């Protein structure tokens, strides 16, 4: 079993091997209160369910997560399907 740490390795679902990450992000995380300003991210969330049309818990979770990420200063866009009767 391989332990994956953020920024160090990524696993592929097809062959289940671990490879070094090729992202351009810093490999050293900056803990809260370290004086390093947090990076603002542009986040795209895809969900087949979103309020006001709810079937199960997915829509509620995506909504709560997108609100929390936006409150943290990130730019969040949610793409969902259009259901009949939805505004």
Architecture overview:
This protein is an alpha+beta fold. The chain has one domain. The protein has one helix spanning 58-71; strands at 9-11, 18-20, 42-46, 75-79. Strands 1-2 form a two-stranded antiparallel sheet. A two-stranded parallel ribbon has the order 3-4. Mean pLDDT is 72; it is low at 1-18.
Could you list some keywords that capture this structure?
87 residues, alpha+beta, two-stranded antiparallel ribbon, two-stranded parallel sheet, 4 strands, elongated, disordered N terminus
Strand order of the largest sheet: 1-2
Strand content: 15-25%
Catalogue the unreliable spans: 1-18
Count of individual helical segments: 1
Number of strands: 4
Distance separating the two termini: 48 Å
Write down the domain tally. Answer: 1
Shape: elongated
Average pLDDT figure: 72
Question: Order of SSEs, N→C?
Answer: EEEHE
Rg from Cα: 17 Å
Structural class assignment? alpha+beta
Q: Level of helix content?
A: 10-25%
Largest sheet: 2 strands, antiparallel
């Amino acid at each position: 079993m391989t332990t994956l740490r953020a920024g160090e390795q990524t696993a592929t679902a097809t062959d289940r091997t671990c490879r070094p990450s090729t992202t351009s992000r810093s490999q050293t995380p900056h803990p809260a209160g370290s004086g390093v300003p947090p990076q603002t991210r542009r986040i795209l969330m895809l969900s087949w369910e979103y309020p006001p049309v709810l079937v199960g818990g997915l829509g509620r979770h995506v909504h709560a997560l997108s609100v929390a990420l936006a409150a943290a200063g990130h730019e969040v866009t949610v793409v969902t399907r259009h259901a009949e009767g939805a505004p």
